Records
---
Amino acid sequence: MQTNLRGRDLIGDLDFSKEEVETVLDVAFDLKRKRALGEPHAYLRDKVLAMLFFFSSTRTRGSFEAGIAQLGGHGAFIESNTTQIKHGDTAKEIGEIYGRYFDGLAIRHCDWQVGNQYINEVAKYSRSPVLNMQCDIYHPFQCLADLMTIIEKKGRDLRRKRIVVSWAYAASYLKPISVPQSLILQMPRFGMDVVLAYPKGFELMPEIEAEAAAQARKFGVGFDIVHDMDEAFRDADVIYAKSWGPLLTTTDPVEGKRLQDANQSWITDARRMALAKPDAIYMHPLPADRDIEVTSEVMDGPNSVVYDQAENRLHAQKAVMALTMC
Ligand code: CP
């Protein structure tokens, strides 16, 4: 167990070592138990977290705000359009100034080729820890909650369990690529064989795919990329199928939509779930395009763990806040 996380940022999934992530999980399970028993756990009394959003949210906002309150602190919700950022406050100003007001700065900024750079720039000037609530490259807190959920359903020993991280068709908008990127980076460290599936044109960042392959080699697990959803689902233990935009191919929304629409058959339905192991779990970070990305039959079915997964955002985030902001 590595307990020296005080003051640390969490921006990329590999910022914390495997042992440090194990510590986060231990604390998260303890906090989940404490909440279930109604045991007080006000480890961050009088601490204040700034939650700066450049992008909408249901779960991330709710779980960070509830989490910091349950830890005895306060969360300040700050929508970027209500600040002076558009009138000149730079990332340096936010880091320097908010880093002095607040005990932690959590930021969501998903703009392609902007968000991660912005969060790192704030962190450079902040004296308080900076937590990435999702950027264009990573969604580390989603991934911690996902890992926690997989452990709950499949046990601590995930060695040789097969997780499929698959693209799925969506009609609503071109979704960020951060969730699949975080998953392929983190899961090999915990012994899972990773299968990444997407139609041509929906590649992830080459440096992230290369790093995921390197992690897989280091931890002696598989990392395969396939372009057929049925092939990917065969014998899987965990199905994690969600949409993302073809951002490495085009940033033009019209061309992006055209590419998405050419792959409408990429849906998680009962037929495809039957290709996986009978006890395979279905995961999605939400929001999902119901009956487009995934049928309601699967999403509301016995193999779906999407609500436990959403709940675990709360516990995983409380663990990181308690460890970094104390
Ligand atoms: N999964 C997730 O990050 O949800 P929100 O976009 O609602 O925060």
---
Amino acid sequence: MPRKPIIAGNWKMNCTQPEAIQLIRELLPLVSSDDLSDRVEMVVAPPFTALAAARQELAASTISLAAQDVFWKQSGAYTGQISPAMLVDAGVRYCIVGHSESRGRFGVPEPDFDETVLRHFGDSDETVRRKVSVLFQFGLTPICCVGETLAERKAGRTDATVIGQTERALQGLTAEQVATLVMAYEPVWAIGTGEVCDAPEADRVCGLIRATVERLYGRTAAERVRIQYGGSVKPSNAVELLAKENIDGALVGGASLKATDFAQIISAAPHR
Ligand code: PGA
């Protein structure tokens, strides 16, 4: 069964409510053809404060809403956190977890720490695993990010890093759950830097994620799991990336904040 490409816009810490409404109003007419929604699944991930406004604007569209993070507890004294039940209440369908900007290793010196790729929020493989697991409990679909830093790539540790992060994020899930989730291969050095991972290499690493899923959860899960590439995706490189066999979509940061660019990236999704 062919996998339907999924293109998600990660707005990060951008867009007040009026800005979110404006962006969506610019985007909708550009992507509202039936042909497009038949061939590609579209998602936007506004910041928490704009979810309600975005939900209203998207109500009559085929674009789904995603959150950018979640906490794994249902409620309680967790100042600043958002629970999965709150995301359900906000009309969210997908949730990004383990984004490299949310991962980090507080207390552990990071020789490769790069100020231009800020990683603040202390997500670890274990917190990512908990978040993935709780999202399933609440009927939400994770968009689970993995990817190596520049130092890891230079040290020849790309494959081990990506395989290890994938294994640990998915631990404890059933094959059926894994089949429905979305993985995103996001090389940290390619995020927000304008430096894109070339398409054959992005395809190779996405294939590695798929092989890891196959080894642990079987063939069917591996054939069904969708794996996005993310990191400086733009209209000029989207066609080549999205044509690759193991790349089932894109997680788009900067370019998703411009309606025309995001619409062009969505249109670049192949017929499958
Ligand atoms: P970018 O971000 O497209 O701005 O590189 C991608 C991401 O962080 O998801």
---
Amino acid sequence: MFQTTLSTLLRKRRQPELTCAQPQKEMKFREVTVYLVERRMGNSRRNFLTSLARSKGFCVDNILSSKVTHIVAEDNPAHELWPWLQEQDITDLGKINVVDIAWFTQSMRAGRPIPVEAQHRIQKPSVQPKPEAGPPDSPWLNVSQYACQRRTTLNNRNKIFTDALDVLAENYEFIESIGPCLGFRRAASVLKSLPAPVRSIKDIEGLPCLGPDTMAVIQDIFECGSSSKVEEILTDERYQTLKIFTSVFGVGPKTAEKWYRKGLRNLEQIVSDSSIHLNKMQIAGFKYYEDISKPVSKAEAEAVRHIIEEIAGCFSPDVTITLTGGFRRGKEFGHDVDFLLTVPGPGKEDGLLPAVIDRLRSQGILLYSDFQESTFDLSSLPCRRFETMDHFQKCFLIVKLKKEQVAGQQAEQRCGRDWKAVRVDLVAPPAERYAFALLGWSGSTLFERDLRRFARLERNMLLDNHALFDKTTNTFLQAKTEEDIFIHLGLDYIEPWQRNA
Ligand code: DCT
Ligand code: MG
């Protein structure tokens, strides 16, 4: 019944790489000629990526000439790449797209060259970084301790370290040891923001949030290829069991620990133990475990959006629906789909979510719902605690998504079913609170936490999902857009796809 085992919950090992590139065969996309920059990428990876692209009909040239339309580089900071490109003496370099590997991998996934967007470009630096600032050997200068002052894309160049630190953080989360958990999360987040892989311990000396425990883990990985502390946790029965238990919707560390202490070790034992009383959320969590423990794809999220749009449109033609959470940050997969629903005009959102829920039910596609009425009251704001859920009208749902509704998916039969259960969160803030709600629900959790911390410690302001309050002047600061909030905080605007802290 529970097919998701620990091995699928834990990260997969990298596949071995090919050593010699396939020759060019059929060219499907004549308007695109790719050149892969070997420096930092390495010869074998370059060969592997060349073969991959050619097998998909892309033209990949081994020589950098003005015939090339896309120069693709991996782990090359702009201030290193651009001087090198300029030395290559190519005519019309300015007309060539200089892009990060993310453009390449997304194109491979799409099976066609995707349009180049701002986040793909490796911009020519306008000023060279000053070598005299910062620790002498560290290539990264002025990295902020606040995630909201760092740009963190999904292109994590230090996965080997951040995966290890995330295991340590998670292990502390299971024992509800908040301090050390946050310490490792912050360290991982700093490494995720770096524009290139860490090559030696010297590279990261002087960076914020990297305490002695973190440095020891990184040192271990440099010396032995892995951290013995992390390996120990990964093979620990307690960690493995808590990881499986907390993967069930509605099961947090406290409940998981309670079951573990009872001697229970797998999900079958939980459902067959008559002394265990499951709440409504957990019953749904077990019932739909096979589906909702699997990632939700972007195409599935879009299909859910269509359903909600159609239904909400019956409530009011003016309703707007915004995809938030990880998908707004550019993720291809998430554990759920988060939407913000708003209707212009004061109080116009009243009754919106109950109407949506009723209609999902009458269509026979509502598998679970937990509706929370709005308790929003501006006079009780802003709230000091980050962990507190916001007070907007919201609901946590499980809906039945028909495979035929998902773009690119056949109505295949899987386990005798043509549908998949998907977790969906809907939030309906008043329209005038939209910017704050959007910023709060876009995440990531650590980015949000640091925005609030920055507001409090650096600006004497209180920020939450409802409002921004200036304690110096005792006033609420108004905002129509996320940009307005960043301006109030005196922060450079960080795009959603740069908030993957
Ligand atoms: N959030 C928040 N307060 C909380 C929990 C979450 O403000 N107590 C924000 C941060 C992220 C956003 O809401 C959506 O939450 P999740 O769906 O849990 O996160 P996600 O980034 O969308 O992750 P996933 O892609 O796995 O769904
Ligand atoms: Mg989400």
---
Amino acid sequence: MKNKIDNIEILQGDLTSMKLDIIVNAANHTLLGGGGIDGMVHYKAGTSLLEECRKLNGCEIGSAKMTHGYNLPCKKIIHACGPMYYGNKEKAPIQLKNCYKKCIELADKYRKDNNLNNITIGFPCISTGIYGYPKDEACKIAIDTVKEYSSKNLEVKFVCYEELDYKLYMNYFNDIEKNVFEL
Ligand code: AR6
């Protein structure tokens, strides 16, 4: 199985330790921090991140906003507000898709505004921790949406923290590539 095809790569590890241009944070609508990766992002970035986040007036579910990276090794953080799954099963898929789409749009705007040819962006498995989105369904939305909207100028890394997520991503990623060849 391949873990990199074209501009998309599947990795396992801690996204907050990675030296990428942009990392995506799985935040909530307040953008003021929380548990999971959000807690780690704020802890490592330092209190200046919270000061900037306070000025953003929160974020709609299914959308995202960008800040500086502060003490993290990345240059920018995109704080994405994914959907909670339970009690929201009808709207959750489109909200999760919109989240990934918005992140790609913000990353592309950052790239163009800074006259960069290529940038790297890392995604966690948004909504699949505390927000309870089923991991297999979220994995398909994540990969499909990134394939639909990203260009070759964005080097996308899906950074799975958990082994189960890594296996799901690897399987789906390789399955869809196989189907492309069989068409
Ligand atoms: N690197 C990469 N992935 C990580 C890391 C890390 N360092 N730490 C956790 N994950 P979650 P959610 C994975 O719960 O479900 C917060 O309180 C984790 O294994 O962080 O979107 C926010 O403030 C899982 O696969 O985010 C919101 O209130 C994925 O990140 C709420 O949780 C997402 O898990 C958001 O919930």
